[in-house]
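Per your request, structure below.
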């Protein structure tokens, strides 16, 4: 089919290349005429993918109407801080009656809208879905095996996306839980910042495993309070995405966290990484959501203090380690063994 991709960053170009290899006619909208011309001429992003050329069949343009002309599917792949401005600039060109899937992860800080919610508000009259999971662009561009989740309000649209993206190296599952899939993909970036901080300090595997485990517990608690399905956060777009983002050096959030753990400020770390660090933006949104839904998020709260209140990463770890004593999983009295219900237990 004809597929239009809005955004020409590393993730967008990995997706565009994958779709082109599947035989789709792919058009990519670039943010400037100069970048569209460079991509047409060089077919590469050397800083992100050294030595790799994109498929010759991909067409690049800076013209919005030309970019989405005849599209059976529109893919939004701009970094989350730019989703609003980009969608607003495309409103007239896109119109209504289109199918849109976002591959961006993030929650808008001021409105607390997910990416699909934001696109539904800004581009009314269109069907919007999300595609998310443990998918580093550096591996997708090289056709390394990857699994991901297509989440849509209708089963037919989710399976439509599944059919468009599915290949022997790119397995696509479907889900009706759009909210859960998006929250997992957004909030894991904040936990990945914390994972990087642990590495930057020089701590080991024990605390990293604890962070990942308690991190998914924290994300799940908020997501469920917001109406997501519990099982979603145990899947690819929750636990899967959290593991890969906390463990891989492909993760810009982990890389930024390492620099912060070594003593750099959030601004210095982002400048050195040289890319949008989504977790920095999602942290503030997560804190606001925690307040709105009255859900404690101790790890994310400490990350927020490090990012915006000047707390050191070591002090944040110490604060988490010395929190009040508690049972690992909250159970009702009826679920506890008899001995644990007595006054003799602690």
């Amino acid at each position: 089919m004809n597929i239009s991709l809005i955004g020409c960053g590393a993730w967008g170009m990995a997706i565009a290349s994958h779709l082109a290899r599947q035989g789709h006619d792919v058009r990519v909208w670039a943010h400037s005429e100069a970048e569209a011309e460079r991509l047409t001429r060089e077919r590469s992003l050397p800083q992100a993918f050294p030595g790799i050329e994109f498929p010759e069949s991909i067409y690049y343009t800076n013209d919005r109407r030309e970019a989405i002309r005849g599209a059976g599917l529109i893919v939004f792949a701009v970094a989350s801080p730019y989703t609003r401005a980009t969608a607003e600039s495309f409103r007239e060109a896109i119109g209504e009656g289109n199918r849109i899937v976002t591959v961006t992860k993030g929650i808008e800080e001021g409105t607390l809208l997910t990416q699909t919610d934001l696109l539904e508000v800004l581009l009314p009259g269109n069907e919007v879905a999300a595609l998310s999971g443990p998918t580093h662009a550096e591996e997708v561009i090289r056709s390394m095996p990857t699994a991901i989740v297509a989440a849509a309000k209708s089963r037919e649209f989710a399976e439509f996306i599944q059919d468009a993206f599915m290949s022997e190296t790119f397995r696509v599952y479907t889900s009706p839980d759009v909210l859960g899939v998006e929250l997992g993909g957004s909030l894991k970036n904040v936990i990945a910042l914390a994972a990087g901080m642990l590495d930057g300090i020089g701590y080991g595997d024990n605390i990293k495993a604890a962070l990942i485990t308690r991190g998914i517990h924290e994300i799940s608690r908020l997501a469920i309070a917001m109406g997501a399905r519990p099982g979603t956060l145990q899947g690819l777009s929750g636990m899967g995405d959290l593991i890969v983002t906390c463990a891989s050096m492909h993760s810009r959030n982990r890389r930024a966290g390492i620099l912060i753990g070594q003593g750099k400020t959030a601004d210095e770390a982002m400048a050195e990484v040289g890319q949008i660090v989504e977790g920095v933006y999602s942290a503030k949104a997560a804190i606001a959501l925690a307040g709105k839904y009255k859900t404690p998020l101790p790890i994310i709260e400490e990350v927020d203090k490090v990012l915006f209140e000047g707390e050191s990463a070591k002090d944040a770890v110490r604060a988490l380690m010395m929190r009040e004593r508690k049972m690992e999983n909250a159970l009702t009295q009826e679920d506890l063994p008899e001995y644990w219900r007595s006054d003799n237990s602690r």
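The chain has two domains: 2-176, 185-321.

Regards,
D.
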